[in-house]
Specification:
Two copies of one chain form a homodimer. Chain A has 175 residues and is of the alpha/beta class. Helix content of chain A is 22%, strand content 30%. The first copy, chain A, has a single domain, classed as Dihydrofolate Reductase, subunit A (3-Layer(aba) Sandwich), CATH 3.40.430.10. The radius of gyration of chain A is 15 Å and the shape is globular. In chain A, 46% of the residues are buried.
Chain lengths: 175, 175
């Protein structure tokens, strides 16, 4: 199973503008790219805050991904919302989550944030690719792409314009 | 006079790798780009730490820029190193520094860091362009491109490969 981190950031690496939750700064071109990319994936993993922000802000994550796994320290609190095989809440570690999805036959997993989840899965060596939309903005503060120190080497696979000012960069993670 | 911020960063916006000073992580391709770009400029502005790190790490900033201005809170301490019209130390504000260079006939100013200087000059609306080399690395920590919150809108002017994995992105600052 392939694991792809998908995110949109400012040029200087922030996935939120200052303390405003969500990616409201993302261009229409990025949103279209995101909607078009998701059907390639049969599962998605995200943190609880990302999940709740997405739900609060509209249907962006009411998405065509068949199976969603939400990381939370308190999965019991979300038991009423859970739908087995479609929307799961778990406090399991990254390796266990990925192993379970793989053994269930999933082929492509989208890692959808936030910074804690990115860092956790990258540090565990579980991410194969990074698809990063770079918006033409400098924020100087906000939620960073990774929630803490790491040292990950990448290989650029492609770079393309989503619109006149927005770039989509695709990297493979070096092992 | 045109003011161009020139920097090299990790994909996630750090101009140092964790707490290691300097841009030792920069690719050979970025170093070649930097050396090739500097002769376009007749002056350069940088912070004291950037100046001292560059000097300690070799001749990178013993560069073909005719006139260098180093920002420091204590210019008096550097009086012995100063060379009028070639290497100046100042505690003046960004607007005053730029006005002086412009009135002295300078045409192109390279802004060479670090994060405090980037933020100071961007916040003052004194930067015309951002030339950013993006290395295929994720650090999750280090000196950020901007030392604190800002909200700067950019226009992408060009994107090009410096080598197979390193991108050079050139932006104009929107006014």
């Amino acid at each position: 199973m392939r694991v792809v981190l998908i995110a949109v950031q400012s040029l200087d690496g922030f996935i939120t503008r200052h303390d405003r939750p969500g990616a409201g700064f993302a261009s229409a071109a990025d949103q279209a790219h995101f909607r078009a990319a998701l059907p390639e994936f049969d599962c998605a993993v995200m943190g609880r805050v990302t999940f709740e922000t997405a739900h609060a802000s509209g249907p962006a994550l009411a998405n065509p991904v068949r199976r969603r796994v939400v990381l939370t320290r308190t999965p019991g609190r979300h038991a009423a919302s859970a739908v087995p095989g479609a929307l799961e809440f778990t406090s399991a570690g990254p390796a266990e989550i990925i192993a379970k999805l793989r053994s269930d036959g999933c082929r492509a997993c989208a890692l959808l944030g936030g910074g804690q989840v990115h860092r956790l899965f990258l540090a565990a060596g579980l991410v194969d690719e990074v698809w990063l939309t770079v918006e033409p903005r400098l924020f100087g503060g906000g939620t960073p792409l990774l929630a803490g120190p790491a040292d990950v080497a990448l290989e650029l696979r492609s770079h393309a314009l989503l619109d006149a000012n927005t770039l989509l960069l695709k990297y493979a993670v070096r092992r």
